[in-house]
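Quick one, probably user error.
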């Protein structure tokens, strides 16, 4: 125990922050590409399909502003400055669009939905509340302005509104999906950092292994979900290294999480899934029509001797005895 090497926590914190910074910049990059495409599509619609010169040029201007400013500030400013600035400017930019469509559709409000979500991805929770109020204030202001003043905006037919609303909804689903995808990646980095902090705590040798992983349950749930959805255990050559690559997680964390749930090791956990698959197949199929070999190979076992041994270890009876018990019922 005296030879236990301690990795300095400041270094791990720095690694975590660098990784999160990279993900946030990637998110900004992909978001700019996505929004550029969306603005271009809408600008072309109002140029050729729904003629509205003012709206078309307004959208072209927004597209130019988005791309040009991003190219200038992406290396000069911090992530927080860029996102704060964008949220404020984007909300104000949407104000004119919201007024134009106020009497035709409330779909323009949908543009504002990702604003609090973006704040949730990039900033502490207090900013989610602040920007939610900011968005709400914009909507309320738009309501009173639309009531107090009469604007001579172009009239749009129901068919026009249907087209723009449909594209708008699809666009926002894409934006929200992008934000949630990167939020999950950032959250994963934070979780693994917490695991490392516990694992390399100066008094780690005094703490039982199961107490070193505060996020073992959450990590195990992710492993279980992946194993069930993709049925990875059916791969005869599947091992903890492949799962580590699949999840982009250090294999030691996976091993600790699985052991925290009472499994002796990864192979035991993997075989539990395989035996469970065998039992489901035996219950769902007629052995007069399919072979036992098909069932155990379908579940991920390479040969019958391994299958028989593992089945006996886990079920305390042989496969033949289990099949007989099914036939009796």
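Nope, works fine. Designed sequence:
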């Amino acid at each position: 125990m005296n030879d236990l090497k301690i990795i300095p926590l400041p270094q791990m914190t720095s690694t975590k922050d660098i990784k999160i910074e990279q993900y946030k910049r990637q998110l900004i990059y992909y978001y700019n590409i996505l929004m550029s495409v969306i603005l271009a599509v809408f600008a072309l619609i109002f140029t050729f399909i729904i003629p509205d010169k003012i709206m078309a040029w307004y959208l072209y201007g927004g597209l130019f502003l988005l791309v040009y400013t991003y190219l200038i500030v992406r290396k000069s400013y911090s992530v927080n400055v860029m996102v704060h600035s964008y949220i404020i400017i984007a909300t104000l930019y949407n104000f004119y669009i919201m007024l134009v469509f106020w009497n035709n559709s409330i779909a323009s409000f949908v543009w504002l939905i990702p604003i609090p979500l973006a704040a949730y991805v990039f900033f502490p929770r207090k900013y989610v509340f602040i920007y939610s109020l900011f968005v709400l204030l914009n909507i309320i202001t738009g309501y009173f302005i639309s009531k107090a003043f009469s604007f001579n905006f172009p009239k749009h037919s129901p068919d026009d509104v249907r087209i723009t609303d449909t594209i708008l909804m699809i666009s926002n689903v894409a934006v929200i999906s992008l934000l949630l995808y990167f939020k999950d990646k950032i959250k994963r980095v934070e979780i693994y950092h917490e695991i490392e902090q516990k694992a390399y705590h100066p008094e780690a040798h005094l703490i039982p292994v199961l107490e070193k992983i505060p996020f073992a349950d959450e990590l195990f749930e992710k492993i279980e979900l992946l194993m069930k959805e993709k049925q990875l255990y059916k791969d005869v050559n599947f091992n903890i290294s492949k799962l580590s690559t699949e999840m982009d997680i250090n294999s030691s964390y996976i091993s600790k999480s699985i052991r925290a749930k009472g499994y002796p090791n990864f192979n035991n956990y993997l075989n539990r899934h395989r035996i469970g698959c065998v039992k489901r197949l035996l219950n769902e199929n007629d052995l007069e029509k399919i072979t036992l070999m098909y069932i155990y190979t379908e579940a991920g076992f390479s040969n019958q001797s391994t299958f028989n041994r593992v089945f006996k270890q886990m079920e305390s009876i042989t496969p033949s005895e289990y099949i007989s018990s099914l036939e009796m019922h």
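The chain is about 75% helix and 0% strand.
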